[in-house]
Amino acid sequence: MRRVNKNERVRIALTLNGRKLAAEAEPRTLLSDFLRHSLGATGTHVGCEHGICGSCTVLIDGVAARSCLTLAVQAEGREVKTVESLAAPDGALNALQTAFRENHALQCGFCTPGIIITAHALLSEEPDADADRVREVLSGNICRCTGYISIVEAVLDARSAYRKGGGP
Length: 168
Ligand code: FES
Ligand code: FES
What we know:
This protein is α+β, with helices and mostly antiparallel strands. The protein contains five helices and five strands. The protein has helices spanning 31-38, 95-102, 112-125, 131-138, 149-163, and strands at 10-16, 19-25, 57-60, 63-66, 79-81. Strands 2-1-5-3-4 form a five-stranded mixed beta sheet, with helices on both faces. β1 and β2 (19-25) form a beta hairpin. α2 (95-102) packs antiparallel against α5. One FE2/S2 (inorganic) cluster is lined by residues 46-49, 51-56, 66, 68. One FE2/S2 (inorganic) cluster (FES) binds at residues 106-112, 143-146.
């Protein structure tokens, strides 16, 4: 196996929100920084950079993951989805995004992309999740503004659309 100098830039190719893309980065580059700075996917937010706040959550091959704890090189050949993947091409919001808006489930919005991606992963697998399950799954996402009540209500409201296959 070839040793890579830590300052050497390597080409990383992945599928981002359905598009095959590639860019160069240092082997130590975080996936969160790669998405935002190299690929322009700024919907992914970066808060703590320590795996605590959940703001940077993305889907990697369909599984919710902290992009601040993932190296960009680890995403080589993977399918990555960010919050930008959820709305329709014409800009129409998906069921979760609509429910967040209707339930006033965000204030500053900094945590929102990570929370919506986490909730999307949950409802895609468990569209009948109850309030306790929603709280359990969202316990890894920190929101400083809302008090969570409206967030949980929004996720519960979106369940019916996911039961019908309404999530992208
Ligand atoms: S920025 Fe990744 S968990 Fe906080
Ligand atoms: S809406 Fe401000 S941190 Fe959640």
